[in-house]
Amino acid sequence: MPDIRSTDNQGRRMDARDRLIVALYAQLKAERETRETLEWAIRNGAVSQEVLEAIAADPVPVVTSEDIASLEKIIALDERRKANRN
Fold this sequence. Notes:
- This protein is an all-alpha fold.
- The chain has helices at residues 16-43, 49-57, 65-85.
């Protein structure tokens, strides 16, 4: 993802601020896409009142702590592979 800062070349892991930035970016992007889709559906009469109420009442978190943990594991594995090549 070109918009997300990667770890530096010295092998440091993403710190808490970087993880927060990644999570907030993903959530903002998903919310924008959802809003655009919902606006289109409303303009075209494709959404009932019940569906709108369900959407408003049940927000789904975009990035969970498990997602961030998985990302950290992938980064750690990648760093180990790089270290083993040298």
